[in-house]
Write a structure and sequence with these properties.
The protein has about 150 residues and is an alpha+beta fold. It is built from 3 helices and 5 strands, in the order H-E-E-H-E-H-E-E. Strands 2-1-3-4-5 form a 5-stranded mixed β-sheet, sandwiched between helices.
Length: about 150
């Protein structure tokens, strides 16, 4: 008898990458992250989006994953989805990313709360959260560079 005959859903988890480790880009700081994600970030000035950059132990980029898309003033961030992706990709660390369509680079209370929540969750899973970067069409703000994380 199979799982489906017992009305139990089968769960599978897969991850595959198309970039050989020797070709993966290495994160060297917040500027390198900004330079990597800025060209592929849609609608910087239109809608707020949240993404996660997944990193290997040697800080090579395993991938970029979009977590949510919201409106002009916010988006919902589900920590479970972030950790599901990080575990699936076997990431050793993650960098949190989101944009502010207003062009404002200051962090909000909501930004600080979600950063703290994900950083604490990562601690239990041995997944480091070295930075949370806010992007605009003109610049970026790194919580790590400003000593906020």
């Amino acid at each position: 008898m199979t799982l489906f005959q017992q009305n139990i859903a089968e769960v599978t988890i897969t991850y595959s990458h198309r970039v050989m480790p020797s070709k993966q880009m290495r994160v060297t700081g917040s500027k390198s992250v900004y330079d990597y994600v800025y060209p592929v970030w849609p609608d910087l000035d239109y809608r707020e989006r949240f993404a996660v950059l997944l990193l290997s132990r040697s800080l090579k980029i395993l991938g970029l994953s979009w977590i949510s898309t919201g409106g002009v003033s916010g988006t919902v961030v589900d920590a479970k989805l972030i950790f599901q992706l990080a575990l699936k990709a076997n990431a050793s660390s993650i960098i949190l990313l989101h944009n502010h369509p207003s062009g404002e680079l200051r962090t909000s209370e909501a930004d600080l709360r979600i950063t703290k929540k994900i950083k604490e969750g990562g601690h239990f899973l041995d997944i480091d959260v070295p930075d949370h970067i806010i992007l605009t069409s003109e610049s970026y703000y790194s919580m790590a560079d400003e000593g906020m994380i």
